[in-house]
Design goal:
Two copies of one chain form a homodimer. By secondary structure, chain A is of the alpha+beta class. The first copy, chain A, contains eleven helices and nine strands. Chain A folds into three domains: 17-121, Alpha-Beta Complex (Nucleoside Triphosphate Pyrophosphohydrolase), CATH 3.90.79.10; 132-211, no CATH class; 233-306, Winged helix-like DNA-binding domain superfamily/Winged helix DNA-binding domain (Arc Repressor Mutant, subunit A), CATH 1.10.10.10. Helix content of chain A is 36%, strand content 18%. Chain A binds a DNA duplex through α10.
Chain lengths: 319, 319
DNA sequence: TCAAAAGTGTTATCCTTACACCCATGT
DNA sequence: ACATGGGTGTAAGGATAACACTTTTGA
């Protein structure tokens, strides 16, 4: 009723005050290959769609769109960020995007749709430090970032750019911090070292070095999701959303390593998990591991209730 | 143009896919009395307004509305949460609210508007543990929460409610966790111990115990802001946004204590701040402190660049 | 027998917490 | 003198990181 009155009285005003709201999802799973994102073929792009009247809530709207486009049902969902689309500033239409992070297991995939999963390191090759610092990071990204820094007009900016690059990428003996995924992407964007920044694939370094691009700003949203997940696994037991109901401790460790993009020390990881009482033995063992049979564990759902903030801190291992 | 065509061609569709987007701000400052929120008289309510075409971005829209309604310019801003307004589900109009946390100094207030600041403990009296556990929490809230738990139909729910209350409020020798502000409010809402939950002021406990109410769901948004801020001061140096350019270490400590709602151990706090190199001496001293003159410090803005994640962890002090 | 993974134990180090104590100023 | 806040030092306890080592399976 407010609305129809508004339309009549101030037509221009009523229309300008309305926007289109898009829901967009970073859906993550972990398989043998590594950490994966759910994408739709065209773009590639993240699954997304407009928030409609039929949706009971933002979350249910998101679930509906993802299931429709990929056949993938979603479990854990959390909001990432809401932004007014920079690319689409135009006088008549405004679009705001509400992005979400969703965690799921890949075998959940139903019949409909053909979900396509891609390792998220296809999009961010410099983020995977499980086998040491990637060559391409030091050999391609680093010189190009330094070149970009050197191109600045004044010395202060040059110095600032160098420092920012060093902090984000861990140059000059600074430690690598896996949580800075978004800052790193933004830096590469600013330096025009990713395709999206220029629109010209040739301006960026070799495709393998700068990673696969995505449509619009979807790669940036993916970076936001990765960063959020990497920091969250350290203080909330969210990894278990990505695991099968039962798992071995090494499988759990491999999953955390896949997400964090770095290796963890085995004894320390086990102690941490056990002493926090995050898991309990099922009594069974798994033989498919190639070595001595491993005890199977399951997540103790009770910790979610018992503790307000139970973490899966990941003990760092220096190389 | 797209839009008018849309209206003509698919009137229903075009309208259903458009929503009104509201921007809403939790603006925080710290003064002698304690931590304060900026409110507008009617309600009381948080400053808010629709996102319009004229706004260049969500943030600038927010700044515009807050400044218009209160005369308060904003400094630090961060997004809190976006939600589809539960209270206004109706067939024709959809409203989504994008909420923000803003930090500012109270003396920033310009001439226009008449900003009214209120201690946030007026709205959440049970959140202030600086002088020990509030009486009202143990004497009013606790029995009412236990009563609510006991009213559940089945034993499992009774047990669950009791446990949730105990975790959130630190009953039964559990530790008090100041970060759980939102969970506590939600629990009180669920138990109909806050006015908003019923619409009937008499259903809730005495006004002083359940705290002042706000319009619509604004108190819930405020709880979200407090929770975010309380957890953030532990790993990001955001307190300094609330301080004057120079300050004594005790002033800084009092500010953190005001936000956290609990006391901190002085020597430990100082060591933490100094060893993290968050501040530097100005060389001057302040005499207005009532005792020995205190050294004045200023925030070292350089830490924002140097370190990716510099914190102001607050060492806990048990009573 | 060897490779591969499971699983256990120990130590050095750092950070946190708690507590005790001295210093400088105004009344 | 004493109250008030400013400021420093230290020792105990716990968590973390690093490393060494034994056990159990399949090929």
């Amino acid at each position: 009723m407010d609305q129809t009155k508004g339309l009549r009285k101030h037509r221009a005003n009523a229309t300008t005050n309305k926007v289109k709201a898009d829901l967009i999802a970073v859906v993550v799973a972990v398989n043998e290959i590594g950490p994966c994102v759910l994408t739709i073929a065209k773009g590639p792009a993240l699954p997304s769609g407009p928030f409609e009247l039929a949706h009971r809530s933002l979350q249910s709207g998101l679930r509906a769109w993802v299931e429709l486009q990929t056949g993938q049902p979603l479990g854990y969902i959390e909001q990432l960020y809401t932004f007014a689309d920079r690319d689409r500033i135009d006088a008549n239409e405004r679009v705001i995007s509400i992005s979400y992070l969703a965690l799921t297991r890949q075998e959940d995939a139903g019949a409909s749709g053909q979900p396509s999963w891609a390792s998220w390191y296809d999009y961010f090759p410099w983020e995977d430090h499980r086998s040491g610092t990637p060559r391409m990071m030091l050999e391609e990204l680093r010189p190009r970032l330094l070149e970009w820094a050197g191109n600045a007009d004044d010395g202060a900016t040059r110095f600032d750019r160098q420092r920012r690059a060093a902090v984000a990428f861990g140059f000059d003996d600074r430690p690598w911090n896996e949580d800075l995924t978004l800052q790193r992407y933004e830096l590469l964007y600013e330096a025009a070292l990713v395709e999206e920044a220029t629109g010209d694939p040739n301006a960026a370094p070799t495709a393998s070095a700068s990673g696969k691009a995505m449509v619009a700003d979807h790669r940036r949203i993916l970076a936001t999701g990765i960063a959020r997940l990497r920091s969250k696994i350290k203080y909330r037991p969210v990894v278990f959303e990505l695991m099968r109901p039962t798992f071995t401790l090494l499988q759990l460790q491999r999953a955390v390593e896949a997400l964090a993009g770095r290796l963890i020390n085995k004894p320390n990881f086990r102690r941490l998990v056990e002493q926090q009482e995050l898991v309990e033995e099922t009594g069974e063992t798994s033989l498919d591991t190639g070595g001595r049979p491993a005890k199977l564990y399951r997540f103790r759902h009770a910790v979610l209730d018992e503790r307000a903030a139970a973490g899966t801190k990941l003990p760092v291992m220096r190389p």
